[in-house]
Amino acid sequence: MKGSKCFFLYAFFLPFVIIIVSAAHSCEYPKQGGKKLFVFGDSFVDNGNLGKIGKLARSWTYPYGITFPHHPTGRFSDGRVLSDFIASFMRIRSPIPYKYRKFGFQLLRYGMNFAVGGTGVFDTGDFQRNLTVQIDVFERQIKNGIFSRCDLDSSIALVAVSGNDYGTYQSSGHPFNEISTFMNSLMSQLKVDLKRIHDLGVRKVVVTNLHPLGCTPMIARVSNYSSCNSTINLAVQQHNQKLDAIVKELLIETRSYDTFMSLDVHGAFWSILAQEKFKNGLKPCCEGNTNAINCGEVDDKGVKLYKLCSDPQDYFYWDSVHPTQAGWTAAYQALKPSLSKIFE
Ligand SMILES: *[C@@H]1O[C@H](CO)[C@@H](O)[C@H](O)[C@H]1NC(C)=O
Ligand SMILES: *[C@@H]1O[C@H](CO)[C@@H](O)[C@H](O)[C@H]1NC(C)=O
Ligand SMILES: *[C@@H]1O[C@H](CO)[C@@H](O)[C@H](O)[C@H]1NC(C)=O
Description:
It is built from ten helices and eight strands. It has helices at residues 2-26, 82-89, 131-143, 149-153, 164-171, 179-199, 217-220, 230-253, 265-274, 325-342; strands at 36-41, 96-97, 111-113, 155-160, 204-208, 260-263, 286-288, 306-308. One 2-acetamido-2-deoxy-beta-D-glucopyranose binds at residues 176, 222, 229, 231-232. Keywords: Hydrolase.
């Protein structure tokens, strides 16, 4: 009797011993404890990397940040942005912007944010860097030993490319009807980028799909914010189908079912706008007087070149392309079921 009980205990505990030993082995240098978030992309997720570079970085001027934390922090909204909400879902603090890494060592255990407002998969202007450069910076952090293989193993990467490539494509005079050729080259580069983040050791890579660009105030302004541009939204659908296809390819190539996932930001925005969840759907809270994009701009005498609403919580859009914090809160509610699947 005594002997068989002992055997039972042995058989029960042995697998645990093996698991503990092998886990310790694969995780030799745990630098920073806990689950981490690494963020790549543009203004939908940047929390301060885009520097104070004059007019272009309006995210560092009033009225950006008026709702949270009541002053500008480099976020393109009146408050929190998507990366803040994803971090909160993971029950961690928003990862520190790479630019300010020296000022928050204790924050390194939450990961790092490499996103820069204005970024595209390809170059988007004179000063804005592309996604490749952000991954280079990430790789350097690993090589410098800031994050170990072990840290990456339990981490999530969030990649958000939200349309700057198309803005650059169009503003440099390319014809709209040739956009699908451009889309294909964008997708093949994006696939390389996603694969590279995974190859560097991040277990799960989550990429946002493209929001309905044709509904952004910048575009909807011509209709007095009464309708979206369906031609542009059709191209967005094409983009999202191609994105789903590359995610599937990556899953097959890495022989896994959950290393790459797309996050349906498009569906979230679309359901909010279609169900008219906000008093002001397409009209932005902060609107330029003469064009859609100069929220926050003042002239030489300090006179405002924009109009600011008094109730941002009633607006989905904050400025010409970015949601308000209330807008992101609603989108986050819509994304929660998918996030539960991603982080299960
Ligand atoms: C990204 O930018 C770097 C540095 O300017 C450049 O070398 C590289 O070719 C660019 N990559 C892409 C995909 O545009
Ligand atoms: C635009 O819409 C607003 C409110 O919906 C309305 O007051 C205004 O007259 C409209 N302007 C034009 C030019 O149609
Ligand atoms: C929608 O956008 C396309 C592409 O920029 C443009 O050619 C077209 O005129 C726009 N349609 C409307 C109704 O504004």
